[in-house]
């Protein structure tokens, strides 16, 4: 069997690091205070556009780029799901273990390095549509041979659409500890 782990919200809680990166990028580009408070939920580029509709396309792009540049200084705010990691490591000699994510490759590489996740058999950073379907095509794996660890219901639906068996999908909750 092949273990396929989602990153954000499953193996890694990166919500605070993501929020702080956006906050600093916003303040750096616009030279004004970021008025939102961190609430433990995921803050995304869509949220930036939603909460700050006055931003021009150029400002949004500058904030996005600055957020990427600043992210490394907030890696200490990311937390690994130690319970999941401990479970996965029991199978390291008998199973291939992949990270499959919609996150940007540069950020994924920073997080993997920071948390010493060098045991991974591979990392797949999806660029469009169904990450699980694209992962299966990329590695030429059979959907029946993978076990998915995922926190997001919409992504679980994607796994099912890709042919992953329902009994091979494990929904992960929020249970993070610092390492």
UniProtKB/TrEMBL annotation:
One matching Pfam family: HAD_2
Superkingdom of source: Bacteria
Molecular function (Gene Ontology), one example: hydrolase activity
UniProt protein name: HAD-superfamily hydrolase, subfamily IA
Family annotation (InterPro entries): HAD-like_sf (IPR036412), HAD_2 (IPR041492), HAD_sf (IPR023214), PGP-like_dom2 (IPR023198)
Entry keywords, A to Z: Hydrolase
